[in-house]
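Re-run with default settings, no changes from the original entry. Doing this only to confirm the output is reproducible before filing.
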Amino acid sequence: MPPSGKMKLRKNIFCNYRKSIFLFLFFAFACIPISAKPTAEDTLQLWVMPNGPGSQDAIRNGLNRFTAETRIPVHLEIIDWSEAFARISQALETGNGPDVVQLGSTWVSFFANKGYLANLSPILNRVDSSRFIPESWRATHVYGKKGTYSLPWFLDVRTLFANRIVTDSLGIQAEDIQTEAQFLGILHYLANLQWVRKSGYPLVPFGLPGKGDWTGHQQLASFIWTAGGDYVRETKKGWRSALLDSATLRGISRYVSILRDSTYSPYSLRENSAQVVNRFTNGEQAFLLGTSEIIRKMDLPPSEQGLSESPIGKDGLTLFNIPRGPAGSIPFIGGSHLAIPKSSESNRNARKLLLFFVRADNINQYSHRIGFLPPDRSVMSVWAHDKRYQNLLKSIENGRSFPNIPEWAHIENLLITMTNDIGALYRLSWNTGANLNLELAKIILKNHNKINEYLHIQESPEMSISSIVSILEEPIPEKVFTPRKAKKKIIPIDGDDSKSNTFTWFLLLFIFVSCIFIVITERRLHLIQSLSRTTLYANLIRLRQKRK
């Protein structure tokens, strides 16, 4: 073939090769899906409540990670706790709610029973439910029915906190506060000391919410449970009120004995739980029946709503188990869950968002930021390395939550009203000197009947008013507390008797030294005067002799 022919052939081959490359690249790019900009329909809706300092930043950081992993955008809406139940109820009922929603653990059975929540059973193989503690997992379904309608997010556990400078100054140890009788003895001792802080306020022993509060029934629960009672109880005929059970009445009596006592908890009848917590963190209260987020706040500066520079931040915290009653030591366990509304049941992206936030690493990150406890055992094992959480995590083994019956949402509102009514009873009559056990018995009986109405139980009260009063008037045991010697030197609390004793000894020492100084000075003056007189007489004699 002539050279010109060869050149032409090579040129044709090269052109065909280049065309093939272009065609290959064209089809390759054509097969790649082009990501369109997310539209409003693609954006997930997440509703949560404010769960403590830094909770909003923590949830937004989590959403940023989720969107980076999945390219799914999420719109976040923060709903205040005061309006959360009503807003969520309306949204779920109309079907115009979010794709994923935070629910109080006691709300799940109520909404699930109404058919407002998606059944999550199909995705449980991606969750490993065994990693959640039983009390938190129990709230994911409706009692007596199949189906899982939420996943645990974090725990709200109540335990007994104490100001460490108080406990250290008195040498109070765990064995000194194991029982209710011992606890009452310590409160009695503190009431008689009448310590005063720098703020000018007295150091009060304890505080309970007695006015306009929504946590009173949670704090009352431990008193009732440790006495062997309960709010409701399951029988062969179904669930019924347990308010008139003798053990329940004794638990209420112990709670009320502290609530109305003007020396043990002088501000309780006029304060809610937030005010009680503030008094404790201001160093003006020795003990608090509080939740775990206070531990986390001890690490945070004031700019992040923390307590590191507060009086309690400087005094320190001590944690004790709930004082033991006849039925043991039983803390209250609450918390929050995440659920998918029925309207988003088929939304795969909603399931991805839910599963993302209940992953162990994300549970750990979020719960650590807000200070509430994780419901995941694997995360708990990590937290247990922090000594501040060890006893609290161990106490969960004996903890108890409210029953997962659909009627509980209504019963809970009833109990909130009841605890506030009890506070009002003693607040409005505190200076009359009247025996209010009869009025207290009427409040308990009224709510007993209302609970049975919600539970569709029609029966006459098993106990008369006089029988209720007789139980409420039973004496409450109290063990005298004797302070131990402090293990180390403690800076006394302002107004402590040790300061006045130190001043007294210093004054006596000053007077003694002054007396010695005066005696020595007088003797020296007397000696100087004697010497001066002798010298004067000698000079006079010499002067007379010279004149002679």
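Residues 179 and 324 are 4 Å apart (CA to CA). The longest strand covers residues 151-163.
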